[in-house]
Design a protein that fits this description.
The longest helix is centred in the last third of the chain and has 31 residues. 4% of the residues are buried. The chain has a 3-stranded mixed beta sheet, with helices on one face. It has 3 domains: 110 residues, no CATH class; 37 residues; 35 residues. It is mainly α. It is built from 6 helices and 3 strands; from the N terminus they run βαββααααα.
């Protein structure tokens, strides 16, 4: 449980719905000296953002006792807004997937859970190294693509270009794309887009 001490003055109607559900107005309707602004109770955020399904206990008739562990702390307002909106978006995706609605990016709504598992279970140095290497890989891939485009744009004739290797490469990329498309329940949509 996290209290949000630095919420300050809020314009209630313009709050994000995920944040608004944690803001409870003072019940008596009391106003400040101007008569324009109401009061709200301290914001308490039940922070289940990092709680995974594997952390949960299934309840049935055989369960008689449950462990209870509560952490009480403060959370910065910007962090609260970010966590609340991301958590609500993930819950909405899971509800939509459970009711059988198709999600915009495909999948069943459990992708966010897998991302949180990776962030929690992976060594921070390995995760940082992976991110840095991926960024360098994207930069070098972009530079190689730019170099290829400028090479073929400035080429006046077809000397040195192997049409067979180009066609073989197109064929292999097509086979990989069709394989991934056929096994789309096990394939992330992010790996299909670069092949399009």
């Amino acid at each position: 449980m996290s209290f949000i001490p630095d919420t300050g003055v809020m314009v209630y109607p313009t709050l994000h719905p995920a944040v608004r559900q944690y803001v409870h107005m003072e019940a008596s309707g009391a106003r400040d000296a101007t008569g324009q602004n109401g009061w709200y109770y301290p914001v308490l955020f039940i922070n289940t953002f990092w709680q995974l399904k594997s952390h949960m206990t299934t309840l049935n008739s055989t369960v008689t006792r449950l462990p209870l562990h509560i952490d009480l702390n403060n959370l910065a307002n910007w962090k609260f807004s970010l966590l609340a909106s991301m958590d609500e978006g993930a819950k909405q995706s899971a509800r939509a997937a459970a009711s059988g609605q198709s999600l915009p990016g495909g999948g069943d709504g459990s992708e966010f859970e897998m991302i949180k598992e990776v962030l929690l279970d992976t060594n921070i140095y390995l995760l940082g190294t992976t991110v840095i290497v991926s960024i360098f890989h994207m930069i070098f891939e972009m530079l190689a693509f730019k170099s290829d485009i400028s090479h073929y744009r400035n080429k006046k004739n077809n000397v040195g270009i192997s049409v067979r290797s180009i066609l073989a490469n197109v064929f292999m990329q097509g086979v990989i794309f069709l394989y991934l498309l056929d096994n789309n329940e096990n394939t992330s949509t992010s790996s299909l887009y670069p092949l399009l």
